[in-house]
Amino acid sequence: HAGIGGAGQPGGGDPFGGFGGVGDIFDAFFGGQSPFGGGGAGRSGPMRGPDLEVVTELDFTEAVFGAQHKVDVRTAVACEVCDATGATPGTSATTCADCGGAGQVRRVRQSLLGQMVTTAACPRCNGAGEVIADPCGNCAGEGRTLQDRSFTVDIPPGVDAASTLRLQGRGAAGPRGGPPGDLYVHFRVRPHDVFRRDGVDLHADLHIPVTQAMLGAEVEFETLDGTEAVTVPPATPTGHVFRFRGKGVPVVNRGGRGDLHLHVVIDLPRDLSEEQEELVRRLAELRGEPVAEETRGFFTKLRTAFK
Question: How do strand 183-189 and strand 52-58 relate by DSSP bridges?
Answer without folding.
Answer: parallel
